[in-house]
């Protein structure tokens, strides 16, 4: 009803059907261009846009992975190491049930809940990195990680790992799979991942929106948006999947085998 009504009104005003058609086409092109510009602005500002049915979602060209909870199953190690750190640095030790309750919280909420003084965070982070380094060979990767990384590498997709852990420890945990990684950006502070993401963008040399950062915590999503890259989240890590989805990542992965199809090789 509406298209024909609008078309008839314009024809009457113009008095010329061909001119009407040209005007409509011109208006449509302008509207399409404006929509494209608006989309670019929204993406650049860190907003997540839902893809309508029938449209193809963006295919990414470079993958950034968090380590703990994304590539490596470190939940048990983290709980044990956190309680050791709590005894050493004077904050709350937690039971298994209490740790589970943290899964629907952001990092700042968790820090407040555990009673961790902010000024102690650098020392605690150093201690946790040392603990990981001493136990790295015992850390297990999630099932499917070696095949997924090998598949991305074979497809010509760039791969980086950005983590608060040290590079040597991550390489030990990855074993032979480490050869698939093009860049390690390690030693990030708790809220300092955005700067490491920006270095990956420079290394990759492609549009930031074509880079997908995949993590398992709210701070991973927050950092990716600060760096203006695309945001991916997984459902098998530390944070509760429903909580992560509520933060509106561009992509959410329930299974490891869903990651590879989201990428294609960059055109150089």
Q: Based on helices, strands and strand pairing, what is the structural class?
A: alpha/beta
- Largest β sheet strand count, sense and barrel closure: 6 strands, parallel
- The overall pLDDT, averaged over residues, is 81
Proportion of residues in β-strands? 5-15%
Short description:
The chain is α/β, with parallel strands linked by helices. The chain contains 11 helices and 8 strands.
Q: Which SSEs are present, and which pair or pack?
A:
Layout: H1 2-14, H2 17-44, E1 62-65, E2 72-73, H3 75-89, H4 96-101, H5 107-114, H6 121-135, E3 140-141, H7 145-154, E4 158-163, H8 167-174, E5 183-186, H9 193-204, E6 211-215, H10 218-226, E7 230-234, H11 241-246, E8 251-253
Parallel strand pairs: 1-4, 1-6, 4-5, 6-7, 7-8
Antiparallel strand pairs: 2-3
Descriptors:
268 residues; alpha/beta; two-stranded antiparallel ribbon; 11 helices; 8 strands; 49% helix; 12% strand; globular; disordered N terminus
Structure overview:
The protein has 268 residues and is of the alpha/beta class. The chain is 49% helix and 12% strand. It contains 11 helices and 8 strands. It has helices spanning 2-14, 17-44, 75-89, 96-101, 107-114, 121-135, 145-154, 167-174, 193-204, 218-226, 241-246, and strands at 62-65, 72-73, 140-141, 158-163, 183-186, 211-215, 230-234, 251-253. The protein has a 6-stranded parallel β-sheet, sandwiched between helices. β6 (211-215), α10 (218-226) and β7 (230-234) form a beta-alpha-beta unit. α3 (75-89) packs across α6 (121-135).
